[in-house]
Amino acid sequence: MKISTTNVQVRYAETDQMGVVYHANYLIWCEMGRTQLINDLGFRYQDMEESGILAPVTNVNLSYKHPAKYGETILVKTWIEQYTGVQTTYGYEITNQNGDVCAFGTTDHVCVKKDSFRPVPLRRVFPDWHEVYEANKKVTTS
């Protein structure tokens, strides 16, 4: 299982009046991590879009544990939590420079045709991505 890492310097604009990162900014960091993972696996999301396929978010689940603050360096770890050939669930762990877990969670994505938003299996439209995702998804034991 491939785990990508992305460093983020918390900007003042990402914080609220208390100097704490506003909760919605974690979603932006998840997107940054997801993009880095896709790049690390040898692909570009832009190539997918240019071929007429999008991968919108269909579900978000984030738990906030420790406040990230202005000036901190945040580490976003991203991996493929689950992959079915149609739906991809990406996992995230966001920690601060002291190793405190600030947030963790998942986002679900389904590939759709750009013009109709009709779902299409990743395994059919991008068989090379499918192979790499199958090889790098999290392995769970019962």
Automatic annotation (TrEMBL):
Gene3D superfamilies: Hotdog Thioesterase. Its EC number is 3.1.2.-. One of its GO terms (molecular function) is fatty acyl-CoA hydrolase activity. PROSITE patterns: 4HBCOA_THIOESTERASE. The keyword Hydrolase applies. It comes from the Bacteria. Pfam families: 4HBT_2 (PF13279). Belongs to the 4-hydroxybenzoyl-CoA thioesterase family. This is Acyl-CoA thioester hydrolase. The lineage of its organism: Bacteria, Bacillati, Bacillota, Bacilli, Bacillales.
